[in-house]
Structures are given as structure tokens and as C-alpha cells.
Amino acid sequence: MSSPKIKQRCNTVKLDGETVTFTEGETIYEVAKRQQKNIPTLCYDPRLKPFGSCRLCVVDLEGVRNPVASCTTLVTPEIVVSTSSERVNKYRKILLEMVTSENRGRLDVDSLRGYASQELKVLVDQYQSRTER
To answer: What is the Cβ-side half-sphere exposure of residue 38, based on CA atoms within 13 angstroms?
Structure first.
């Protein structure tokens, strides 16, 4: 006797204009990464439970007033996500300016500080953030 097939509902989300599928329990960040969308992070580590402290991974959700952290926000069916709207990019730029203002003089890539120093420098350049505030 064969076991009955369980019909799985196809969950979809609109991500930067594309309809993509997701599995229940995935975060917006995980779905976006699988779709090769570039969402910056400083605190995300797949080995740890996401906590959203750096806020660089924010995205816009249609109908939601403020950007949300993609690493901690679970995907729900039929939401509409924008990963790089003008508003989100401006928000990221300001966040990077705040981070760098606390770390003046430490933006040079440093082999002793490893990859993290490279990552921050790349993001500051990408978003053209001022390093003094």
C-alpha cells in the first residue's frame, strides 16, 4: 500500500518584480540570497540565529511603512519585497556612515582584522558613504 501524497501548496513571493517560490520558515534574506540578490550584511552568519543588529539587510515590503530586517523577517505568501529601492539604499548609506563615524581611521583593509575589514570597506565604497559625520 502506497502512502498518500501530500499536496504541498506552492508558496510564492514577489522579489524585485520576480515571482519566486519559498519554503515555510525561510527569511527574506535566505530567499533573496538563493535568487542571487545582493543584500549587504555585517552581522549575518549562517551558523548563528539571525538577530538583525546591523540593519544593513533592510528591505522594503509593500504596504509596510518602515524597512524591515530581511535576516529576521520570515517570508509570507504573496508579499512584495524590494531589496534595493532608493529609500533602502539611502537608509543603508546612512547606517554605514554611522558605523564608520564610530570607527574613524579604521577603514583600511587590515589582514589582522580579516575579512570583516574588507567587507566594510567594500560596502562604504559601494554606497558612497561619508566616513565622517
So the answer is: 6
Amino acid (1-letter code) at residue 85: S
Residue 38 to residue 28: CA distance in whole angstroms:
12
Containing structural domain, residue 123: 87-133
CATH of the domain at 51: 3.10.20.740
Total residue count of the chain as it appears in this document: 133
d(CA 38, CA 121): 16
The reply to whether 119 and 79 lie within a common domain is no
Q: Mind listing the pLDDT tens digit for each residue in 35-94?
A: 999 999 988 888 889 988 899 999 999 999 999 999 999 999 989 999 999 999 999 999
**Statement to judge: residues 78 and 17 lie in one domain:** yes
The overall pTM is greater than 0.85:
no
